[in-house]
Write a structure and sequence with these properties.
By secondary structure, this protein is of the alpha/beta class. The chain has two domains: 175 residues, Rossmann fold, CATH 3.40.50; 134 residues, 3-Layer(aba) Sandwich (Rossmann fold), CATH 3.40.50. 48% of the residues lie in helices and 15% in strands. It has a four-stranded parallel β-sheet, sandwiched between helices. A four-stranded parallel β-sheet has the order 6-5-7-8, sandwiched between helices. β7, α10 and β8 form a beta-alpha-beta unit.
């Protein structure tokens, strides 16, 4: 008979016990195919944190309308950005995790292990936690790569961590980072990446900061996501010394018919084009790594729409990814949260 509780955390040997850091991101299909996208969307969209609708009603809508139609269309979009090494989100997230482990081992005086776990798809959060447990990590810090807290992303990540640990015989000590939207190192890295882009290509007429959207009713119910996005935008504007009237904050990636937080990125770009704005630079500070929503939605689709509407140029400024200053900021953030666990 299989034991109900599994003993993943091994007994530590001599010396300081190793520290574990779980780095998580949203996730990605395994391939840019309709079948792979369908599996991914079925897991992602069934999460009650993502779609807060009564389960029987949403099951019917999901299986009768969304999953039969959306995967094929989404697979074509994924194919536009898929790299030789696979999903750009997975490649970049792995590089961030590897860089973070190297930095932490330089900063702390105990063994530090970093594992990557995606909320949806593979590598999964459960497998990443078990990897840390099997390496003797009885203390684990959870670092979701979502600078601004939202229930569908950050909250759901913590749900997955709790669900996995519910089956462990020895539950490790646990700490979580719920957001780092105002972290000085993160803001400084964003500002540096934008300045580098401007040094290479010149100054735009408008700087747009596009964050992932969220249904308005989630914010009305108490989610602080929109507030944290605007706080990040304000800090970044100050760091760049950028005129307030030339900064645009917007929200992208709407899904479904209900009201989402405003203003919408696509509609705002069309308005700017209609006003005769010649060049807009777009950065997406809520995305730690480039993915479908940045590489296709912003850099391809919205660029084409902006130009077709009369805009002069749209330049996408890449996500921070494994830039040295970004990884350094994450290492400093993690080290602060590890205080008390370190000698």
């Amino acid at each position: 008979m299989r034991p109900r509780y599994q003993g993943y955390v091994r007994t530590e040997g001599s010396g300081a016990a190793p520290i574990g850091v779980l780095v998580s991101n949203l996730g990605t299909p395994e391939a840019p195919t309709a079948a792979a996208v369908r599996r991914y969307l079925a897991e992602f969209l069934w999460d009650p944190r993502v779609v807060e609708l009564p389960r029987p009603l949403w099951w019917l809508v999901l299986h009768a309308f969304v999953l039969p139609l959306r995967p094929r269309r989404s697979a074509r979009l994924y194919a536009k950005v898929w790299g030789r090494d696979g999903s750009p989100l997975l490649v970049a997230s792995r590089a961030i995790a590897a860089g973070l482990e190297a930095r932490l081992r330089e900063r702390v005086k105990v063994p530090a292990h970093v594992a990557l776990g995606m909320r949806y798809g593979e590598p999964a959060i459960g497998g990443a936690l078990r990897e840390l447990g099997e390496r003797g990590c009885s203390r684990i810090l959870v670092l979701p790569l979502f600078p601004q807290y939202s229930s569908p992303a950050t909250g759901s990540t913590f749900d997955a961590v709790a669900a996995e640990l519910a089956g462990w015989r020895r539950v490790p000590e646990l700490r979580t980072i719920s957001s780092y939207h105002d972290d000085p190192g993160y803001v400084a890295a964003l500002a540096a990446s934008i300045r580098e882009s401007w040094a290479a290509a010149g100054i735009p007429e408008r700087l747009m900061l596009s964050f992932h959207g969220l249904p308005q009713r989630y914010v009305d119910a108490g989610d602080h996501y929109q507030e944290q996005c605007r706080a990040t935008a304000g800090l970044l504007r100050a760091a760049l010394d950028w005129p307030e009237e030339r900064l645009v904050v917007s929200f992208q990636s709407r899904f479904g018919r209900e009201e989402w937080i405003q203003p919408a990125t696509d509609a705002t770009l069309l308005r700017l084009a209609g006003e005769g704005v010649g060049r807009v630079d777009v950065a997406c500070p809520g995305f730690a790594a480039d993915c479908l929503e940045t590489l296709e939605e912003i850099a391809i689709t919205n660029r084409e729409r902006f130009l077709a509407a009369g805009g002069g140029a749209l330049r996408y400024i890449p996500a921070l990814g494994a830039r040295a200053d970004h990884v350094d900021a994450l290492a400093a953030l993690a080290a602060r949260h590890l205080a008390g666990w370190l000698p």
